[in-house]
Write a structure and sequence with these properties.
The complex is a heterodimer of chains A (213) and B (506). Chain A is an alpha+beta fold and 213 residues long. Chain A has two domains: 126 residues, no CATH class; 39 residues. In chain A, strands 1-2-4-3 form a four-stranded antiparallel β-sheet, covered by helices on one side. Chain B is an alpha+beta fold. Chain B folds into two domains: 226 residues, no CATH class; 153 residues, no CATH class. Chain B is 25% helix and 17% strand. In chain B, the strands form five sheets. In chain B, strands 1, 2, 3, 4 and 5 form a five-stranded antiparallel β-sheet that branches. Chain B has a four-stranded antiparallel β-sheet with strand order 11-12-10-15. In chain B, strand 8 and strand 9 form a beta hairpin. Chain B is globular, with a radius of gyration of 22 Å. The mean pLDDT of chain B is 96. The chains are: A alpha+beta (213), B alpha+beta (506). At the A-B interface, helix 2, helix 3, helix 6 and helix 7 of A face helix 15 and strand 13 of B. The structure holds protoporphyrin IX containing FE (HEM). Protoporphyrin IX containing FE binds next to strand 10, helix 14, strand 12 and helix 15 of chain B.
Chain lengths: 213, 506
């Protein structure tokens, strides 16, 4: 069990929300998607792969079979799902100070939400309502989301470069090559294993790896 | 908002970088507590001479407090506090990082290979309980105070032992103290240099409760949306005060009297591979489009000769201009030119590269990447990662082509939360760079570069200029850890409680 795979951290948080106020949340979600500037902070925090908030109505939980007992829920629930690089403990400060009003807006109507500042009650609220990840697969454990974005950019630029410059004279080719390096100068970071996210998860990983041979 | 700190309750090394007050010489001592009762008596004897943060008499001030010729400060490891028999209920309130101590955090700090604990000075093979520092205006005062401490150790009747095992200038490995000193130029004048030739000790965070804030806060506090600077919250550096998260630091042990006005200190002996650094700089500057000094400046974020910030003087020509303006201005103007800057006009790192020591360690507002109003405040990702720096160079360079002399920096960082502040910077910003979108590229000067797979960094240029960025390749390990630990620096009140065996968290 770990919320960590490679450089990524998976976060599922499910929090109760009064069913008769869920429409306000839906309104905020809508507004946020229509007005991208409200998500500017979230997007600038480049360690975040993505973040998604969903309202699950009181009677909206999956009922797969008639033999499954029906639950009688008093609340609707808000599911928050995100993958990011680093861990919640390491980066809670970054989230809280970068986008406190955004976080407050999304969780505002949730039962017992304490607000994002001061930080400890917020940190505890999320930890308390977090569903730890039982199984987590990561196809590119050495890649942070920035590495993926950079790799895509480099690949595209190289293909274009090849098409545009491969037949040029050495002087012109060199000039294009320099231009290419200039265009890509923020995308050359090395990709190596993750820094240790926590000593406990590091120990878990070491023990797991020992069982693999 | 103004806030008054109880300066007589706070240890002086927290508030003052003694080097800046002309204390040119220092000795750091480490002790073991053998007996709780006698150990507490020793702490009591030392406490009587501990230097507080009170402002010293300057001309025109209240002449009651004279500047001492030597200062003394004291701090404890977790095992030290245990040996002094603090109650369990107090001990368990300390944070995990402090409880574990530095050696066990090696995988987080990147202390591997030549920096691994098995290669540290002998003293770290023992359990260190107490750290003491003596800073002095001159060697006589230093020795006098040192002898006084040794007397107290003897008077403890075996209660405490002064530990030996520091490496020294003449190949010793069993010295009973770590010596440190400012460096001197050929004429014997003291300088603010360290062994790689950089000018150090310029910027330190400014926080609420310090004196003379208006003059000092520029470039040193937290950057505000309107471009001004405000002092950081006191609780980032002192327990028992509100921090940037509008709460009391959660690293505080109980009772409050034990925690308040205390803080945590990271002590690290950092060896500098001077020969390798000089060769590396010579080699790299052959292909660099600019002078060797310019390249050195790009690595650190400041020019070696006078500390000019690279973001304000990004190449040889602009440095000459900067120097002229610097010459022409008065003392206050000089201070301002050295500290009052941010990276807003250099979003792409063309002036000060992302990988420069200064920018990695305190990116100011630049993690917004020029996105207008991206975060609540420009320093959102930085204000919780600041550290106060103390310490001095140690040793001397006898042969600038070699690495194996005795030369480096005694680095001490003070912060309320070691994991959130010091360790985060060391791990995420020095040895890793995702926040800078530079993948695993390590900071050049301090990174734990791997000899088998040496890393590189990119020195950015102006986008759209058609010029290629400069790649610094084959970076060797320039700085190695030679020892260190995590310490709790109690207030005077807490010292008295510890000494009296009266810490009571009930
Ligand atoms: C041998 C090791 C080191 C050397 C040679 C070195 C050198 C320097 C130099 C030349 C400066 C610029 C002067 C100034 O702004 O005061 C500086 C600034 C600084 N250094 Fe280091 N340093 C070393 C280790 C460290 C370590 C281990 C840390 C923390 C993890 C650190 C944190 C800082 C900080 C916070 C600043 C001020 C940055 C700012 O506020 O803009 N240094 N260092």
């Amino acid at each position: 069990m770990s919320n960590i795979a490679g450089k990524a951290y998976a976060m599922n948080v499910i929090t109760p929300i009064r069913w008769y106020t869920t429409w306000t949340n839906k309104l905020f979600f809508k507004a946020a998607t229509l007005l991208p500037s409200t998500l500017k902070g979230l997007q600038t925090l480049s360690l975040i792969h993505y973040a998604r908030w969903v309202i699950i109505p009181r009677n909206g939980f999956p009922h797969l079979d008639s033999s499954q007992p029906k639950e009688d829920l008093h609340y609707a629930y808000m599911l928050f799902f995100s993958n990011f690089n680093g861990s919640w403990d390491q980066y809670v400060d970054s989230f809280t100070f970068a986008i406190p009003s955004g976080l407050d807006l999304f969780w505002k109507w949730n039962v017992r939400y304490p607000k994002s500042v001061p930080l400890t009650p917020f940190h505890n609220y999320i930890r308390h309502n977090q569903i730890d990840t039982a199984h987590y697969y990561n196809a590119y454990p050495m890649a942070a989301s920035n590495d993926v974005k950079s790799a895509q950019k480099i690949k595209k630029a190289l293909i274009n470069f090849n098409a545009k410059s491969s037949d040029k004279s050495p002087e012109d080719f060199l000039q294009d090559y320099y231009q290419l390096l200039n265009d890509l100068q923020h995308h050359f970071g090395d990709m190596k294993p993750t820094p240790i996210v926590s000593l406990s998860s590091y120990e878990v990983k070491k023990r797991y790896e020992q069982t693999q041979f | 908002m103004t806030k008054d700190l109880d300066l007589t309750d706070i240890q002086g090394n927290i508030i003052k970088a003694y080097g800046a007050y002309n204390y040119q010489k220092a000795r750091y001592l480490f002790l073991r507590v053998n007996n709780g009762d006698k150990g507490r008596k020793f702490v009591g004897a030392i406490t009587a001479k501990v230097t507080t943060a009170i402002s010293w008499n300057k001309s025109g001030n209240d002449p009651t407090v004279e500047k001492p010729t030597a200062t003394t400060n004291i701090a404890f490891t977790y095992v030290g506090l245990k040996a002094l028999e603090l109650p369990t209920a107090s001990l368990r309130g300390f944070p995990e990082d402090f409880m574990m101590g530095m050696a066990k955090r090696k995988d987080i700090l990147g202390d591997d290979g030549p920096s691994a604990p098995e290669n540290w000075d002998n003293i770290w093979k023992e359990r260190v309980h107490i750290w003491m520092s003596i800073n002095a205006l001159n060697t006589e005062a230093l020795i006098e105070r040192y002898n006084w401490v040794v007397q107290q150790v003897e008077a403890s009747g075996g209660g405490v032992t002064l530990l030996t095992g520091h490496r020294g200038d003449n190949g010793e490995d069993d010295l009973p103290y770590q010596e440190a000193s400012v460096l001197y130029d050929e004429s014997g004048e003291s300088t603010p240099k360290e062994h790689f030739g950089f000018t150090d000790g310029i910027g330190d965070p400014v926080f609420e409760g310090q004196t003379n804030i208006a003059a000092r806060v520029l470039g040193r506090g937290k950057l505000m949306r309107d471009g001004s600077w405000a002092p950081l919250a006191t609780g980032e550096f002192l327990l028992g005060h509100v921090d940037e998260a509008m709460e009391y630091p959660k690293t505080s042990p109980s009772p409050t009297l034990l925690a308040r006005n205390g803080t945590y200190m990271v002590y690290r002996k950092l060896h500098e591979n001077v020969g390798t650094f000089n060769r590396f700089l010579d080699e790299q500057s052959k292909s660099f489009p600019g002078s060797k000094e310019m390249l050195a400046a790009k690595l650190a974020g400041r020019w070696r000769d006078n500390g000019a910030p690279v973001v304000k003087a990004p190449d040889d020509a602009s440095k000459a201009e900067w120097d002229k303006a610097f010459e022409a201005t008065d003392f206050a103007g000089k201070k301002r030119m050295l500290t009052d800057f941010n990276y807003n006009d250099d979003i792409h790192g063309a002036k000060c590269p992302y990988s420069a020591h200064l920018r990695r360690i305190n990116p100011r507002g630049s993690l917004e990447y020029g996105v207008t109003d991206a975060y609540e405040t420009p320093g959102a990702l930085v204000n919780r990662r600041r550290i106060l720096r103390r310490g001095l160079p140690y040793g001397s360079v006898k042969d600038a082509t070699r690495d194996d002399g005795n030369h480096g920096i005694i680095f001490m960082a003070l912060n309320a939360d070691i994991q959130r502040q010091f360790e985060f910077v060391q791990q995420q910003w020095i040895n890793y760079a995702n926040d800078f979108k530079e993948g695993n590229d390590k900071e050049v000067l301090l990174g734990n570069h791997d000899a088998q797979h040496p890393g590189k960094v990119v020195l950015q240029v102006e986008p759209g200029s058609g010029k290629p960025p400069h790649f610094v390749n084959n970076i060797p390990r320039l700085v190695e850890t030679r020892g260190g630990d995590y310490f709790f620096v109690p207030s005077i009140t807490a010292l008295k409680l510890i000494a009296a065996g009266m810490v009571d968290p009930t």
